[in-house]
Amino acid sequence: MSQDFRLDNVGMVNREKKISFKFNGKKYFGFEGDTIASALIANGVHLVGRSFKYHRPRGFFGVGVDEPYAILQLDRNNERDPNIRATEQEIFEGLEVKSVNCWPSVNFDIGAINNFLKMFFPAGFYYKTFMWPPSFWYKIYEPFIRMAAGFGEASIKHDKERYEHKYEYCDLLITGSGPSGLASAYAAAKNGARVILAEDKPRFGGSLLTSDVNIGNQTGVEWTEKIIAELKSMPNVTVKNRSQVFGYYDHNMLVMSERISDHLPKTQKYLPKQRLWYIRANEVLISSGSIERPLVFGNNDTPGVMLSSAAKEYMKVYGVLVGKKPLIFTNNDSGYETAIEFKKNGVNPIILDTRSDPSSDIIAEAKNLNIEIKFSHVVVAAKGYKKVKSADIAKISDDKKELFNIENIECDCICVSGFWTPSIHLASQSGNKSKFNEKIDAFVPDKSKQKENTIGSANGIFTLEETIKDAFDKGFDVSNKITEKNNKVSVPTVVEKKSTDHDKFWCVPLPKGKSYKRFLDFQNDVAVSDIELALREGFRSIEHVKRYTTLGMATDQGKTSNLNGLQLVSDIENKVVPQVGHTTFRPPYTPVSIGAIVGREVGKHSKPTRKSPMHSWHEKNNAVFVDAGVWLRPRYYKQGNEGLFEASKREAKNVRQNVGVCDVTTLGKIDVKGPDAAEFLNRVYTNAWLKLPVGKARYGVMLREDGIVMDDGTTTRISKNHYHMTTTTAQAANVLSHLEYYLQLVWPELNVNVVSTTEQWAGAAIAGPNSRKLLMKLFPNLDVSNEGLPFMGYKEADLFGVPAKIYRISFSGELAYEINVESDNGYFMWEKIMEVGKEFQIQPYGTEALSTLRIEMGHVAGSELDGRTIPYDASLEGLVSKKKDFIGKRSLNRSAFTSTDREKLVGVVPIDKTTSIPEGSYIVKDPKAKLPNPKLGHVSASCWSVEHDNPFSLAIIKDGKNMIGQKLFAMSPLKNKTIPVEIVSSHYVDPEGKRVRS
Amino acid sequence: MLYINCPHCGLRSQNEFAYGGDATVKRPELNKEISDQEWDNFVYLRKSPRGKHLELWHHISGCRQWIKVERDTSTHEIFKTYKANEAIE
Ligand SMILES: [Zn+2]
């Protein structure tokens, strides 16, 4: 198809490079530098979508971030991307986009029937319609809403693109490269400040690209190019295009999304698709410009009705005519600039000006060009369904209440200008309470909240001369606070056409007997009548009106609709806009892709992975790994066709019968050193520590101040002032913070230092009746007899030339030792243990067997110490000192903690000795009792006891000790199981603890 | 994201720190007889002021020091930061 609406030799697209793309399956051509919008308009295509609620035809309304209509779905390199604004997405060879919110096609859309049923879709329709009966929700209402909602479909595939995060610091961040952004960046950079200048569009310059002005004897475009080139050459300046600063957060942290590859057919090899910048700026200058405000009239959502500034930009930047019979409808001078541009390009526009007799340079120029101007005229309604074909226009009375001489004139587009709305979003996000500026009928930023200033038209300054001067000053002032270089550059002279005041009129009354829809929010289909209805129904707060009608709640965040909505509410309520107030602006200013937010933290990069020094041995020996926090631990070592159950049973059994070895490197290790270390431990743990001799270990339990068990583990006295503490894998980091808290803040007088040594030591636990024999061979020169190295003893020795530490401690209930060597020697140690242990039938065991062994021994772990248990609940009363004070002791006196019916630790065995009890099951007296069945407690951990060859579980139940011998039931509604059980002692193996001491 | 001036390390981003609650709470002395009410006040009861609040932060991904931060809970403005043992002005 030919580009019938492309002008010759106008604009900035690259005519040398023709690009083909597909829209709704049909092939079109554009040029390099076109957006989807400009390329489609060049081809005469204006129907691109359907509206959200009524499925009315949708065209293009703007030319940038404010676009409410042209939201498309993009397919790029086999990836699907919804919520793409056609006005921002640049075309590339092979691009495919399609319309959303229409079925079966944008030309014939079944949902458009909603348009004829619109009396049934009033404000608050979701609240009113989908109420009763409740049973309808699940099967009828929800599927209906889900089908009707949303713009496009997100991909469910894994996104293979790369997204990156970058952290940056600067003296000054400037958000927008229009005249004020350029001027302030230049002034600040010349004054030595580190500057980041961010522009959301591909081209720098903002309004300078389209306005007929002169700065320092250069055109706006020339001046832009000169300044950008100079800024780019300066080492203290970063200049970024296609980069949207979308969020202003605490302490001057701003977030910017840089679209690096979205405009290319494929992401380049060493580049990400998008980059998210976290920028900590000393100072921020917000130069985000302003957005033209629509005028409101009948059917003002028809394709072909668009902002007049957009029409001008399509001509001047893209060389594209939005129509050949344009009607310009304006209440200020901006519409004239667009009309003049049309005229220059050989098209005859008609201007309808709501003002009765304005005069200015611009109006005079339009008159000189013989442009037809109708003062005191308005558009009553656009005519045409899928595209504007004509307009009903009328003369309007001076009080703007009555319409005369309604006539129909032919046109193919209506360019509207209702004056300008400063983009105060970022300032507002920073906490800046805005103020209403009567002169421009809009909100502007008030007093700075954080270190931010707003400049240019974002601050309501609409003349170029003032903008440039103010921006040069601000750039200098703000930078000089930081650099103190006093290097001030001179402000260039500015020549611009003078304009006159705008008309406050913005909404055309309905003619008698007509009920045209007059839209305020174009993306969410909110019309004047919806706001009127909401107010009739009693909604008053603008926040409530917004939510009830969904005004401004679409993905464009009401960039074009907010002020007209406020204006309407204040008109109806007989208030002024500042009394109505405005709703809160929240980040992001524009939609941000989920990929950019997540960055590289995907899959295995979503968290660090910690591996023990023996990891590669486990891998080579068929270990199946499990996540333990961020650690990877062998869960079991697979032999043949074994599954988890068989393997862990074999491994655990081998510990009970021969000897096993387990990688315990992950246990938290903390060095506690200093003359007051014993006293400190005595305060941290519930049991006594003052008399622990050197070379001995002790098991300890520590509490939080509220009396709940925090962690347990053994601590060994290495030398007089040096203790080696171990913690559980899960609590290692918390315990260190806990110790530091008490040493630094509560008892700073204690002379103790703590440091994590978890990663310095590789640990192997060897457990089982053969473990001493194995130890004798590993350390032939060491006395490892029961007398030489008794239970809870500690020795240092030499393991084939490598220094090792041996702790005689046991988690499995068997005779056991834990050997630690420096991490670098871990693999060597492990191989030696396996090699030497061969003759004693050694087998490695994983966390599953480890669990089995501890469960049948009745040793508590995380599933029992779950943040609700106090020492008495877990049968740890023997460890609670009556004599000394310690952290959390006072809480143990609380009545709830001393009550006799607290849930306590017991063992549970199924009566049939075969059915495993699901973890989390409730223990109840009567399985048939009326719900909610009173529960006695819950099953915390289950295993297959290798000692007894039947299932065994630990449970925490009311009055536990007195329940032993009782026959009860374990119920798991989740697994739909009810199992008759007997309550037994939690010590299911070796209750006297003979083995560990043997 | 807050920007916290660690008195040991300088300005660092909030994600290096862990929050530690009210810094004015004082733990009762060891071995001292106190009422349930006093103990409960220490363990459980905290004020939630709007405005200036002296609070603890732990520089866990930095110097591992607990510090005190005077912060406005509604604006997040940080007025001053202190070392653990520094006198509060
Ligand atoms: Zn620090």
Which key terms come to mind for this protein?
heterodimer, A: 998 residues, alpha+beta, Ubiquitin-like (UB roll), FAD/NAD(P)-binding domain, 7-stranded mixed sheet, 25 helices, 50 strands, 23% helix, B: Folate-binding fold, 6 strands, 37% strand, globular, binds zinc ion
Structural features, described:
The complex is a heterodimer of chains A (998) and B (89). Chain A is 23% helix and 28% strand. With 998 residues, chain A is an alpha+beta fold. Among the domains of chain A are: 14-129, 2Fe-2S iron-sulphur cluster binding domain, sarcosine oxidase, alpha subunit, N-terminal domain (Ubiquitin-like (UB roll)); 163-290 and 422-486, FAD/NAD(P)-binding domain (3-Layer(bba) Sandwich), CATH 3.50.50.60; 294-418 and 498-513, FAD/NAD(P)-binding domain; 518-582, BFD-like [2Fe-2S]-binding domain (Arc Repressor Mutant, subunit A, Orthogonal Bundle); 898-998, Aminomethyltransferase beta-barrel domains (Elongation Factor Tu (Ef-tu), domain 3, Beta Barrel), CATH 2.40.30.110. Chain A is elongated and about 115 Å long. Chain A starts with 13 loop residues before the first strand and ends in a 14-residue tail after the last strand. In chain A, 51% of the residues are buried. The mean pLDDT of chain A is 93. Chain B is mainly β and 89 residues long. Chain B has a single domain (1-24, 46-89), classed as Folate-binding superfamily (Folate-binding fold). Chain B is built from one helix and six strands. The two termini of chain B are 26 Å apart. The model of chain B has no long low-confidence stretch (mean pLDDT 95). Bound molecules: zinc ion (ZN). Residues 6, 8-9, 59, 62-63, 65 of chain B line the site of zinc ion (ZN).
